[in-house]
Structure formats: structure tokens, C-alpha cells
Amino acid sequence: MESRSHKAVLVITAIAFAVTWWSISIDAARAQVSKELTPREKRGKEIYLNGGSDGGVILAALGSGDLEVPAGSFPCSNCHGVRGEGSREGGIQPPRLDWRSLSSASESQLTRNSRGAYTETSLARAISLGVDANGARLHPGMPRYKMTAAQMGGLIAYLKKIGEEPDSDPGLSEDSIKVGAALPMSGALSKIGEDIKAALGACFLEINLKGGIYGRRVELLIEDSQGDPAGTLQATRRLVERDNVFALLGSFEPQGSGETNEFLSRNQVPLIGPVTLSPRLPAVPSPYVFYLLPGFSEQARSLVDFVGSERTRPKARPASRIAVVYSESEFDRDALEGLRSQLKIYSMQMVVEHRYEAGAMGSVSAVKHVAANNPDYVFFFGGGNDLERFVGEIDRARVEAGILSSAVMIGRAAFSLPPSVAARTYLAYPFSLPERAELSDFIATMQRGGVSLRSAPFQTVAYAAARVFIEAARNSSRQISRKGLIDSLERLQDYQTGVIGPVTFGANRRIGASGSYIVRIDSTRKQYVAVSERIVPTGGDQ
Questions:
Q1: Residue 359 belongs to a domain
Q2: Is residue 108 over pLDDT 60?
Q3: What is the spatial order of strands in the sheet that 59-62 belongs to?
């Protein structure tokens, strides 16, 4: 009997242990679930932050109610803060909107009226009719929002969680911020990927040693993009969906990466400073992608201003007849469009447009076509190897035209040109010049991190991306959020990274730096020498 009794006790104990473990597991699972907003709360968050909803249009009535505008023009977050913390707007202070404040009796700082605690019903009335929990009128600056019952329910459900842990964006914890970069860590561009990773790592090592961003260290995650559009999309998906990064910065962007940027927009994930040869913005730019350097279109426009201006044009070299040789690539067509648009400002004639297939430069026929029209300058938009073949034939044919291109476009090939042609070659250079003092911080950071400047142009963009992210995050708030980061980026004005031109973003501006230096080639010392200050194209952004 004792043996049976003892076995029974063991069985009961085992069952009790299992039930207890199961209960604890369920509680842990519930706790984990509670750390995320529900779909309904997420829809409410979208209404609060952006005035938008997939449940239909929301209108905001202003003043007497005669004027109604889309709620996106006056989202709650504009006045009450990204996390319901309240803010100051034009000398008035909109109140906090967290549920603890709303569900407690209070005195309005705007009207000085006392009010009772809000319930869900009275809060819905306040939002839609503009009256407080006691029925008194709210401040006239408060819009009244027209929305469905489902939209109102979602908004109020979100206000019960605003500012709490479940309301945090992915990638944030009390002591870290996870950021990511999709880089070519394998394949033909792997060296570039390794160098960009090293540059980003050196930047964040320094900021972390100094205490991070409001006490949060920056944690960098890298995914291999293999350097092509499909791989870039997949690497970006892994960083966002699996690794839950807060933002991306310094990702390598190959041609044809539109689908990746659309994915980031759908998931509302910021990307700062993608490393690309030339940004290609769609008709409606993504609000989540912030480029740093001007593209080939703007660089071509700076080159036109250089030869078109009496002040900057090389002496004794006129600029009335223009030829252009360009390849079929998307980037080179960008440059061609910029050239065409800027020529309209000057009394210059396009006498030759010669198109060729990238990598298959027929230099003899191209030079014959150009020479027959006697241009003053030839704009070349293509790869470095193609330029070498073209310029070699130019030299042999003794064509005396000046050559204009982009240093980013042709790369190290610039230092392989025949000296006689190099002497009359001028290149757009959108970075800071190597001899300028402002580069010293970048060089020192790389040296302290043990980083070789093997891919310096790409590494400078990555460094600039990290600097811009750190500045915008610091200017956002201690309670950082993706929307707060974007708002902070859009307020950035003439920020000096030390490696590119002053960075300015805005609500409708997604390329930060403008203009390019124009440089000539020092064939002996294998370096560039500035022949102009930074030229921001005449006519503004296009």
C-alpha cells in the first residue's frame, strides 16, 4: 500500500508540476502577446499618427466647422506628440493623451476649465464634437474629427496603450536601438560590402563608447544582399521581418531597387543614406527613404553651369557647341536628362547625341561622329572602361574638345587617361574634397576603428548616413519612434557631416545634399584638384 501511495503522490506531483509549468507558459505567452499592439490598436495608431485609416476617409472640421480637410493635414500627433506626451504649439500647450491622464479628473491648461475623468463614451464625444467630459467646449484650436464607429473604437483602444511598452516601435529596448544594412557581403561587390560594414561599425563603436543615444547603444545588423535587386529585397525583408530593426542606413542600393523601397514604405521603416551611384526618385518619392548625395542628373546640371558661366568656365575655351556620349543604363540616362534640362538655360546647342551599349564602346565610330560636328565640350556618361577606350581614340584623332563627366561614374579610370586629355577633363565631385579640413573627423574615426579606406567614396556615404541618423535620433526625443525620427529628419537643416555637402531634408525633399565641386585630374599625383567651389545647379531642384 505504501508503495502504491508513494507512486500516486509522485504521479500527482508530476501532474501538478506539469499543470503549473503549462500555466506559467500560458502566462508568459500572454505577456509576450501583450507586448505588441493588437490589429485594432495598430489601426488606431495609424489614425493618431497620420490621420489615415484603411477603413475610409477621416475628415477634420476646423473653427466653426465650415472648413473640412483630410485628417492627415491635422493628425493628433502634430499637437499632442508622437507618444501622447503633449507639446507646445504657438504658445499653447496641448495636453497629454495617455489613458492615465485622460481617465483622471484634471484642469485644462488651455481653457483653465476643470473636467471630470473621461470614459470611452465621453472621449469619443470630445474627439467628434469638441466638448470635454463635463460637456464644456474644448479649445477652439482642437479640430473635430468625423470617423466611423470602428475608427473611433480603434483610436480610443490605441490611446489606452500610447506611450507604454507595447507602443514601442520594433528594434527598440531600454538599452539598445537595432539598425540594419543590406550589403553585398558575397559576389563581385563583396569588398564594397565589407568596407561599408567596417565604416558603419567604426561610427557606432565611437557613439556607443560615448554612451550611445540617450543611453541606448546602437546595435548594427548586416544581411547579405549579393549586390543585386532581388537579393537586396530579400536581405531587407530579413532585417525588417525577422530581425525587427528600427531603421536601415547605408544599405547598398543597386539599379532596379524600386521594389525594396516600396516594401519599406508599406512597412513604414526609414532608410537613411542608401549607398547608390545615383538616386532614382519616383514621381512621388517614398516618405521613408532619405538619400544623401545628388544623382547624376544634378551632377550633369552642375557641369553645365560650370562651362556655361563666364565666371567658372575654363579660360579661352568657349561653350556653345555640346556633344554627349552616353550608354543605355538607367543611371546614364539620368545624367542625360539633367544635361538636356540645364542646357535650356544657356545659349548652347546640342550638336551630337551618341548612344552606345554599355561595355561595348565602339570608340572609332563614336569619335568620328563627335569630331564631325566640332563640339567645344563632350559630356561622357558611361563606365570608366568605356571612357578609357573613348578618350584613347579622342587623343589619337586629336579632337581638342573638353571632356566632362562624373567622378562617381568613371571611378579610378580618371587616373588612366592620357595626360593631354586629362588636362582638359572636368568632373563633378559631390563629396567633400580630400584636402579639406572637414574630412579630418571621418579619417580619425576610420583610423581608430582600424578601417582601411579601400572604398572611400562608398564609405563616406555610409559614414554620413550614420552621422545623420545619430543627429536625427538625438533631436527626436528620448522616447524615440520611427515617426519621430522622420519628423526630425524633415527638420534637419544644413547639417554638416564632414564628408558631403550640407544636408537638408524637408516634407517634400528626400535628397539631402545639393551641388558638386568641379575637379580636374592631377595625373602625376593621382588625385583631384578643385577648380570651383560647390556648384548648386541654377534653377533649383528638378
A1: yes
A2: yes
A3: 67-70, 59-62, 144-146
What is the reported pLDDT for 435?
66
pLDDT of residue 90: 57
pTM, two decimals, is 0.76
For the ranges 48-52, 202-206, 220-224, 329-333, the lowest mean pLDDT is seen at 48-52
Q: Write the CA distances from 429 to 113, 175, 193, 296, integer angstroms.
A: 61, 40, 22, 10
Beta strands per DSSP E along 5-96 = 59-62, 67-70
**Which residues, including other chains, have CB under 8 Å from residue 171's CB and lie 6 or more apart?**
177, 178, 179, 244, 245, 246, 247
For 344-399, write each residue's pLDDT tens digit: 999 899 999 999 998 889 999 999 999 999 999 999 999 999 999 999 999 999 99
Q: Which three cell numbers stand for residue 234?
A: 530579400
Q: Dihedral of CA 291/297/303/304: which sign?
A: negative
CA trace torsion 407, 412, 417, 421 (10° rounding): 20
Answer whether residue 88 shows pLDDT above 80. no
Cβ atoms of 213 and 177 closer than 8 Å? yes
Grid coordinates representing 387? 571612357
> Same structural domain for residues 364 and 221?
no
Name the domain boundary from 126, 147, 167.
Answer: 167
Confidence (pLDDT) at 373: 95
Query: What are the strands, taking DSSP E only, across 273-330?
Result: 289-290, 321-327
Residue that has been written with the C-alpha cell 559631390 in this structure: 430
- Are residues 310 and 421 both part of a single domain? yes
Dig out the grid coordinates for 292 from the structure: 544623401
DSSP, residue by residue, 75-94:
-HHHHH-TTS----BTTB-P
Domain that holds residue 249: 176-292+455-511
- The DSSP element (H or E) to which 465 belongs, if any, is helix 456-476
pLDDT above 70 coverage of the chain, percent:
90
d(Cα 224, Cα 187) in Å, to the nearest integer?
10
24-50 pLDDT, tens per residue?
A: 333 433 334 446 788 898 888 889 888
Other CB atoms within a 10 A radius of the CB of residue 373 amount to: 15
pLDDT at 168: 76
CA Rg, the chain, in Å? 29
| Residue 51 and residue 138 share a domain | yes
- Any domain includes 3: no
Whole-angstrom distance, CA of residue 431 vs CA of residue 461: 9
As a whole number of angstroms, the distance between CA 88 and CA 483 comes to 18
- Same domain, yes or no, for 335 and 287? no
Question: How many other CB atoms sit within 10 Å of the CB of residue 488?
Answer: 19
Contact 163, 85 (CB under 8 A): yes
User: In Å, what is the CA distance from 64 to each residue of 30, 139, 143?
Assistant: 46, 12, 10
Instruction: Clarify whether residues 279 and 399 are in a common domain.
Output: no
